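Pilus assembly protein CpaB
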Amino acid sequence: MSPMRLIILIGAAAAAIAAAFLVRGMTQPETVTRTVTEQQTVVQTQEVSETHVLVAKRDLMVGDLLSPDDFEWAPWPKRNVVDGYRTEEANADAINELSGTVVRIPIYAEEPILPQKLVMKGETGFMAALLSPGMRAISVEISTESASGGFILPDDRVDVILTYQSQVAMAEAVLDRPVTETILKNVRVLAIDQVFYQGESESASQIGNTATLEVKPDEAELIAHAQRLGTLSLSLRPWSDAGDTGSRGARTDLLRGGSPGNGITIYRNGQAAAGLGGS
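Structure:
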């Protein structure tokens, strides 16, 4: 065999062997090794200590007179308790202490009660906070007889009655006779003396020397004028009249010169006749 033929055979054999190894490598499955790192999240729980804080049970508006039903104790994190909060642990009687106070700044439902938002009983400005917008407070002298036997209490409704002397001209002479008329209706009583709120432990009656009434500006003038004309009495009205928005029947004509008692009523044959500026 010639050397050239031998070289060709050896080359062909080498190529066949190389092709066999190549085919074998392509047919074997590829093994891929992957490293997967999973991130683990660990949730840690921490116990939070709680206390009970005094909060508003409802929305409290400016001027509201507060009662025990307006407060409640609510759970509160101890670390979130700030100065001024009333806690049940330290102020167990806080509800009774704050009953009868008046709202100075609005407080919303479930909001903790802060003393800066209330006007305490006996504090300067308490009466001004108690008044409804646009109203005035005026005091009248009372007695047991002129105040329904002492059963008129703060927040009651009353009629204001004026008793005065009127002149009557008879055949022989001019005589004085008492006349009584209602000059103002459905007036709210703010206080008796300096008592603004009746607690459960207090008496059912309140006998004092002065009643403070909530009236409109012109009604305040009327009452001040009427006290100079005669004696004022208070007639107690039922609670059902509290929402009555009808006429208050104010005798404001008394402020325009129609003062009672200035006129003279002339009686002829037992019948009243027109007189001089009749009452």
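The chain has a mean pLDDT of 78.
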